[in-house]
């Protein structure tokens, strides 16, 4: 059904009340479920790239639907890549890169080649053929564009190199604002954000209580892991001054009207300056066991008040009722007339429609009887890594850290507004070595655990110091991951040391231990800066290429050679 008939305004109750009842029914059924099995899984997104040696040209291969029709297996990283490669031609490769570097340039960047639309203002830069033909994606795009009533566009600051024009102006479509902004790359269309690739992990917990605690700790870890995995330094053939895809995704799925944007700009003077949109960092904590000085939500959070009251009256506490009533506040993006006609509180399909239209960096999943799953938490901020071994390292690290969090009941709580601030810091150029992030350095562990030692090779062998200064502060990535180094007692031993302590209590075979230690060393080296992020590796490759003119331009030949090198990496990995 059309967006105008389905969603006249936010707050239309035609689907909200049944959706809220479905939430209550599922929560009531699942709130006491226990599942002691520590299951977890990862989701790795790929780009299919054609490397044409005759033209030294790399293009995005638009063949995803045919590949998916032939592939229904779940295997490990290497097997997945090999299986996809077997379905491709000799010059075609499945690459785990966060974005295609020259998407949207003038000329050919896809195979087959399609020109942007001359008549549809929503496809002036990226042709509609780049969008997946799956109906869910088509409807989602229509609803977002229909509601906002203007093209999707984002200005990404240009990286200023030695010979980059100091008054750079990207080639816009008219002389009107907001299409012109000095020293920025202008990206118009959902494909720039939605075409980015991520590494996502999901962890099953034993109880609802554990899921809510883990959810909150992972919310705080989001900026840390996004900076560690930063892999998006190039957009539309230009080096940009950011390293992450995140804000581009925020813009790609922002369905706010111009009036709502203006209202936020006014409100942001007294609240968080980062908008809360369909795709954004979390602004709600779920556990009622959080410290008393930590508020459960940012003041910017909007809720459907009738849904909130319905959830509270149904037995939910304030935090989890706030979480779900915030999701219900948004319009479902893919609601059909059949969905409306077949609504029933006994099913969950309306709830799924709401949840599939809101993407926060951590997502709570209630038990699902159809697949035998218990309470789960999905972690979404990490960028996909070029090498299988790197994706495996970050996936395993997050699983081990999640187990340590639940085993030791680790408390990383900081005010939710500081998480939002750190998410912005995490996207800056070389954030992993140049930025500092808000993190808890004191009161993070129960009595007896705070004597964890930093690993000797990292130069830190001090116990936690119970001084009277603030419990949380700005810390470097090296301090968060590898521990604080100081002549005075260190306050935080580092996440790697915590995971090592957790592993000491597990019975591991020598080969298992060796592999896990290798993964932890990779994380440690990435945090210290001795192992570059994919974003830094790409910047170095471009800077050292013989065709680079130090003008921030990533030419067709540079892009081809870089992606060819990425393909070689995985063959040797």
TrEMBL record:
Against Pfam families, the record matches this protein to: GCS
Q: What is its EC number?
A: 6.3.2.2
The biological pathway it contributes to is: Sulfur metabolism; glutathione biosynthesis; glutathione from L-cysteine and L-glutamate: step 1/2
Determine the domain of life of the protein's source.
Eukaryota
Catalysis performed (reactions): L-cysteine + L-glutamate + ATP = gamma-L-glutamyl-L-cysteine + ADP + phosphate + H(+)
SUPFAM superfamilies cross-referenced by the UniProt entry: Glutamine synthetase/guanido kinase (SSF55931)
Q: Which Gene3D superfamilies does the annotation name?
A: 1.10.8.960, 3.30.590.50
What is the top EC class of this enzyme, as a single word? ligase
One of the GO BP terms on file: glutathione biosynthetic process
Give the molecular function GO annotations: ATP binding; glutamate-cysteine ligase activity
Q: Which UniProt keywords are given for this protein, alphabetically ordered?
A: ATP-binding, Glutathione biosynthesis, Ligase, Nucleotide-binding
UniProt family annotation: Belongs to the glutamate--cysteine ligase type 3 family.
Name recorded for this polypeptide: Glutamate--cysteine ligase
Where does this protein come from, organism-wise?
Petromyces alliaceus (Aspergillus alliaceus)
